[in-house]
Amino acid sequence: MSAVEYRAILKYRLMVPLFPVDDPCPVCRKSCLDSFGEHAIHCKELPGFKYRHDFVRDVLYDVLKRAGISAKKEAPVNFLTDPLEGRSTLRPADILVFGWEGGKHACVDLTGVSPLVGLRDHGFVAGQAITKAEAAKVAKHEKACIENQHVFVPFAFDTFGALAPDAVRLLKRVQQVVSSNTAHVLLFNLSVQLLSIFNFKIV
Ligand SMILES: [Zn+2]
Known about the structure:
Elements: H1 3-13, E1 23-24, E2 32-33, H2 38-42, H3 47-66, E3 71-75, E4 93-101, E5 104-113, H4 119-122, H5 128-147, E6 151-158, H6 165-179, H7 185-195
The structure holds zinc ion.
Zinc ion binds next to loops.
């Protein structure tokens, strides 16, 4: 990591303004490039935005696989839609976990947010952004999942490394599965180390 990168990350984590004034984003030209760097982390037109979501999805899938839990990435289901698209566009589940709860398959939907969301209006409250993101995902998809005999599990994380309650519950349950199968313990620990890249804590 270069000195410039280190300084930028440290300032972001300590909520020290990165830019002297708010400016329009030079990439998407839609949003304000706020002084704390929140939009810089979340600009949807930067390749890193999708990369982070997919990276966490891939690591989570790897954790499930190493724990011996049957799952599929980007699994097509015929009921998940995206209301934001203005029409009934079917989309796959980020991860489909087979027979997860009461014999029902679980649609795990990942969402990454900045903990600085709403900083300007409400001030900083730890965990607020992920809790909101989790609730928004539940409101969007849970009903459709239940009606189609599936379980919905939101997996919300933020760029400071915090996980929302449902994500923690999912990982704790995976941990229990692993504990009951000692043959997988070493592999699981390896995967947890991978998750720690994002400072995620599940204990
Ligand atoms: Zn932008």
